[in-house]
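Re-run requested by the PI after the first attempt was lost when the workstation crashed. Everything re-entered from the original request form. Ligand of interest: pyridoxal-5'-phosphate.
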Amino acid sequence: MNLAERDLQVIWHPYTQMKTALPPIPIIRGEGVLVFDEDGKSYIDAVSSWWVNIHGHSHPYIAQKVAEQLTTLEHVIFAGFTHPGAVELAERLLDILPGNQQKVFYSDNGSTAVEVAIKMCLQYWHNKGEQRTKILAFKNAYHGDTFGAMSVSGRSAFTAAFDSLLFEVEFIDLPSEENIDSLKSQISNLKSQLACFIFEPLVQGSAGMIMYEAAWLDELMKYCREKGILLIDDEVFTGFGRTGKPFACNHVQTQPDIMCFSKGLTGGTMAFGLTTCTQDIYGAFLSDDKLKTLFHGHSYTANPVACAASLASLDLFLDPATQQSIHRIAYKHSVFAERIAKHNKLKNIRQTGTILAMEWNTGSNTSYFSNLRDKLYHHFLERGIILRPLGNIIYILPPYCITDVQLDYIYSAIEQALDTI
Ligand SMILES: *Cc1c(COP(=O)(O)O)cnc(C)c1O
């Protein structure tokens, strides 16, 4: 049996209907934006391996730092103990986040970073003796797959089996010039019950790279702040340069109360997550009453290897060459978008920073499950490009080390798809 056949004997893959799935492609090596299969065929990783990779695969600098850490201290319990990597990472991150972020809480992934954020907000009000238990979120939001994160995500085919068990959330439309006043009055009607507002800033990734304007997000954030509603900025996807600035919240004036990070945090090396908060939130848990403690933790909280990978990734991220590359990708995306914007097969093309998304005209069948998705997926795979369409939407968000030549190759494969599919 080859690797793909052995895989199907023993493995259940994420987001995959195993009955109809094609055998998985075994990848045995990665270098820069490329990953290589068993036969040596290379693929450009145009989706950064589910949006996590920002500096390319098997980066030698990250590998070296991780290797050093592995032979120094691989893990230690994080209650009652600490270690240099956790402290240094917290110090350096807080340095580049909005000034009001004062404390870092470590966990394992994006969903847990969101769970921690929600618990911080709900218990913040509980500790203060105020009855604020409702959460505000956007329609079509995605904040993760654990139950709390699923609850604050939009109801969809993915949550259908669990809908009756998810806690109630107030969902509002994305803000725009037209609806901002009506959104405010919706919020105003609920204001004294709302504990927090959680949002994906500027781009709703899983919903299909839906983009909205920073100015209207800022307006909503400001309004919620006035009403005492805590602001959770879920930067799991948008953090670390994706939107063209270091963090999506750098596009708005209002500073969030809580921020969530994962995905690009370790440069895409390994699972890790963290939640940051203000002194005010942290302060609400300080008490002689033990019941006011935040009772949350994971076995691998603040894993030293993950901290080392994150510190190495941060070094690379802050290198001016990386920042230049982010701007170069954003610029090339915009030139390409302008060139194909009028194509009759395209319903829409949109861009935020290094994220470029285009929506195929499909007539009636526009669902995630349409067979256009599979045709597009295979069109790109045959050309050695990993793109993973969300229904009729294809998107590129490459590692920042992608070259102009590689970007042009992806663009031309997209133009071929437009002309032939
Ligand atoms: C991916 C994602 C999550 C969940 O992160 P996982 O590490 O997959 O659990 C949460 N929020 C947003 C905005 C995401 O894109």
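Saved to the shared folder this time. The chain has a mean pLDDT of 96.
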